[in-house]
Amino acid sequence: MATFKEFRNNVKPNWCPGCGDFSIQAAIQRAAANVGLEPENLAVVSGIGCSGRISGYIHAYGLHGIHGRALPIAQGVKLANRELTVVASGGDGDGFAIGMGHTVHAIRRNMDITYIVMDNQIYGLTKGQTSPRSAEGFKTKSTPEGSIESVLSPLEIAMSAGATFVAQSFSSDLKQLTALIEAGINHKGFSLINVFSPCVTFNKVNTYDWFKENIVKLEEFPDYDPTNRIAAMTKIMETGGLLTGLIYHNQTRKPYEELVSGFRPEGLAKQELQLSRDEFEQLTAEFK
């Protein structure tokens, strides 16, 4: 069985010192080892942005896609290789701006992949512009007088789109984050895990200290039931989306792959692609 160290490679991350993405990378590696994966069982697909670099920092199959397109690629990988555990990742700009259309449809489609969003409420790679996750009044190079747009709530959108697994964590809480990624990987269906990942270079508002003062941990509510969809949405709204933990979990709905008629369980690379004469004639007969 692979250990945490076996999911490391020789590529040194070039994130800014103190970036929350370091912890998210470590959590993915720990979770992969904890659920019993081998590097060849895992595929990490990422988009563009600081967070998009993560697919090159983990010893596994990796693909660095284009802006906002991590989820279409990840879904294609899963459909072609059902035996792989597929993790998609990206930032709040990648997933909730240019890629939001893909995010919503991936959620409702419920394919068996895990999507980890590194949410720093700003565009970090392009040197600090307002993102869909920036609060009203947030001042950046693109909004010097403060943002006049309302902040987007990905958790509310996920719930509305019919998500079957919704969680949120904080990059400083490595134990909780690792456990949530493990649960997301084990969940049969689409898992959304939004992670507060402070940008230490450009976001001087949503800092580590700010999150520690404002985050509400669901573990503080012993009676909270993550299978209650109405309660989950209510708690999201009550806390302004600043809660962490397993917010919602529904395992009664089957993942997309199990609903596709005639979809074989083995990956395409392992299938016999040569049609027999009988199979060929049976297929062509459908068009007569």
TrEMBL record:
UniProt entry keywords in alphabetical sequence: Iron, Iron-sulfur, Magnesium, Metal-binding, Oxidoreductase, Thiamine pyrophosphate
UniProt cross-references to Gene3D superfamilies, sorted A to Z: 3.40.50.970
Pfam assignment, any one: TPP_enzyme_C
GO biological process, one term: cellular respiration
Residues making up the signal peptide according to the UniProt record: none
Occurrences of domain Thiamine pyrophosphate enzyme TPP-binding (ranges): 49-195
Domain Pyruvate ferredoxin oxidoreductase beta subunit C-terminal: residue ranges: 199-263
PANTHER family to which the protein is assigned, alphabetical: 2-OXOGLUTARATE OXIDOREDUCTASE SUBUNIT KORB, 2-OXOGLUTARATE OXIDOREDUCTASE SUBUNIT KORB-RELATED
Name of the featured protein: 2-oxoacid:ferredoxin oxidoreductase subunit beta
Species the sequence originates in: Paenibacillus sabuli
